[in-house]
UniProtKB/TrEMBL annotation, chains A, B:
One of its GO terms (biological process) is methionine biosynthetic process. The keyword Oxidoreductase applies. It holds the Pfam family Homoserine_dh. Residues 1-30 are annotated as: Disordered. Belongs to the homoserine dehydrogenase family. Its cofactor is a metal cation. It catalyses: L-homoserine + NAD(+) = L-aspartate 4-semialdehyde + NADH + H(+); L-homoserine + NADP(+) = L-aspartate 4-semialdehyde + NADPH + H(+). Keywords: Amino-acid biosynthesis, Methionine biosynthesis, NADP, Oxidoreductase, Sodium, Threonine biosynthesis. This is Homoserine dehydrogenase. NADPH binds at residue 133. L-homoserine binds at residue 218.
Amino acid sequence: MTPTPTSHPDDDRSAPVPTPQPTSHTATTDVSAPLRVALLGGGTVGAAVARLLGERAELLAARVGRPLELVGVAVRDTSRVRDGVDPALITDDAVALVDGADLVVEVMGGLEPARSLIERALVRGVPVVTANKQLIAQQGPELHALAAEHGTDLHYEAAVMAAVPVMAVVRESLAGDEIASISGIVNGSTNYVLDLVARKGVPFEDAVRQAGELGYLEADPTEDLEGLDAAAKIVLLARTAWGLPVTLDDVQRQGITHLTDTDFEQAAANGTVIKLVASAWRSSAGGGDRVEVAVRPVALPQDDPLAQAREGANVLIVEARSAGTLRLHGAGAGGDATASAVLGDIVRAARVR
Amino acid sequence: MTPTPTSHPDDDRSAPVPTPQPTSHTATTDVSAPLRVALLGGGTVGAAVARLLGERAELLAARVGRPLELVGVAVRDTSRVRDGVDPALITDDAVALVDGADLVVEVMGGLEPARSLIERALVRGVPVVTANKQLIAQQGPELHALAAEHGTDLHYEAAVMAAVPVMAVVRESLAGDEIASISGIVNGSTNYVLDLVARKGVPFEDAVRQAGELGYLEADPTEDLEGLDAAAKIVLLARTAWGLPVTLDDVQRQGITHLTDTDFEQAAANGTVIKLVASAWRSSAGGGDRVEVAVRPVALPQDDPLAQAREGANVLIVEARSAGTLRLHGAGAGGDATASAVLGDIVRAARVR
C-alpha cells in the first residue's frame, strides 16, 4: 500500500451567514433538468470533488438518472488558483450559491459558516452531503432533526474513514442486526507516526516531524495527536450504531503526545505494538442502557488485526450479534478517497429525490 | 475466529407454481398496519430469519417505521419441526402466501419454484429479498427488469458473503467511483479445506472429508469444490460493479478437485499458499469494453491479504480509481450471518416503500 497523506477538509471560511429563514420556494423537482450542485470549499477535497464531477459526468448522470451540474464553488480566497476547478465557478457568495442549488456539498470544514450554510440548505428542503466530522459530532442531532422537519436528508459517509464505507455498514447493512462493539484505527496521521516508530525504529519526536513534512499532519497537529479527530469519528459511529445520544464529552480520550521512547521500547520488548484505538461498546453497567466511547493508545499483540494497520491505513472492526465480526480496511484520508465517498453520497442523495 | 460452518440455502421445494399473471390488486400501502412478510424456505437460513424477526420485532419496527409481521413460512415438508419457527406459520401453499404478502423473502434456494414465486411477487409490485445466488446469477437481469416494470425492487446482499456488505459497497458506496478490479475468497468451504492443508498439513483428501464431517461441505460438495458457488458470486459482483452483461458462461472457472498433495508441497516450498480466488476486472483487450471473470486456485505469497483468510473466512478486495484499495473481511456463511444480511435487506426494502 502506498502512503496516502492525510488531508483535512479545507478550512476556507466565507463571510458570516445570515440566520436561515424558511422560504416559500423549494428546490426544483423537474427531473429532466440537470441537478444543480453547490460546492462549499475548494481545498484538497473540494478540488477533487469538482474535478471528478467533470470527469465522471456521464457515469454520474447514468447512476443518478439525470445530469449533475456543478453551479459554483464557494471559497474564502477567490484569487487562489485551484487545480481542476473552472475559475468561472469560483465565488465568495456562499449564501447565493446555496440558495440556487438542488444539492449542497460542504467540504469547507470548521463549525461556521459551515453550520449556517447547511441549515440554510436543509430549511429549503435541499439535501446536504458533508465531510465535516467535527460539525456532525457537535451538531448532528440538531441538523438531522432540521432535515427531517423539511423532508430532506444529511449524508456524511466521507466524515469517517473517507471511502471505507463504515457509516453505511452501521446504518444500513446492519440495520437488522444488533451491534455489540466497534473498534478501530480511524486516524491515519497518528497511525503513520506510530508505525514509523514501531516498524522503522524512528524515535517518536522524529516520527512526528517526518509525518508533518510528508503532509500526514497539519501545521497544528493537535486534532490528530490528541485524539480529537478520532473522537469525533467514533462519536458518529456510536450514535449511528445505537441511536443513542453520544457526545464528544462522553469520550474517554487520551492522545499520543505523552508517549515516550521508553513506552515504545517496552511495548516492543513485550511483543506488542502501540496503536491509537477508537472504540465504542454498549454497556449495561449500573443497570442503564448506555454507550461507552474511548480513544486511547493501546499495546496490541503483533497478530491483532488492528496491529497490522500500516502507514496511513485505517481499519474498523464491527462485532454484531448475528453477522459476527466484520472488518473493513482502506485509506482513511486523501483528497480523492474522500471525494469518492462524497460522490457516493451525492448519488445516494440525488437518487432518492 | 471460531469456525463458521458453511450452510447453503435450504433446498426445500414446493409444488410447481402457475405462471404469474399481473393482478389488479397491489400490496397494501397503509403504513400504520404491520408489513406482512412471507418467508419461502425453512432451512438453516429461513429458521434463523424467522427467529430473528421475532426476537428483534421492536428494533425492526423502529428502523422500518412500522411493525413487521411474519405471516407464513412456506416449506416442502410441513411435518418437520423447525427450531424457532411457530408451527402455526408453516404452510406448503407458497403461492397463497406470496399473494397475501407485502414483502417476500426467498431462502429456499434452487431455481424452481423460487424463480416463479419471486416473479409472482414482483408482478404484484411486492419487493423481494433473496439469498439465492444461483438464481440471480442466471436470471438477475430478467428479474430486475420485471421489478422495475412493476415499480418495485429485488435485494440480494445475502447472496454474496452473507453479512459482509459487499453488494452494497459495489452498488452504493462506490456509485460515484470507477471500480478497476474485484478479487477475493468468496467460498468459505473450499477455504476451510485449503487452510487445513496449508496450515495443519492435513492431506488434501482427508481435509475434504473433515470439512464434510464438520458441515463445511454439503453431501454433494461439487458446487463448492468445482468453483460453481464462487462463480455465481463473482458474476453478481461484476455485473453490479460495471453494469455490463456478465454471465456464468463468461467465468474462466477451475475448481480445486484436481489439486494434489504435490501441488501443496510445492507451494509451501515456494513460500506460497494455495487459495481459490474469484476475480473480476475491466478489460479493453481487443479494443472492446468488457469484464473478465475468473475463479481458480492461485499460489499467493504468505503476506498477501487473501493468503491470510483462515478457516471459513471470506475476504474481498475492491480496487477503485479514487477510493483506492478497500478490503472487507468476515464470515461468508452461516445461518445467523446470512439472516443478518436478509434482515438488513428487509429494512432497506421496507423503508423505501
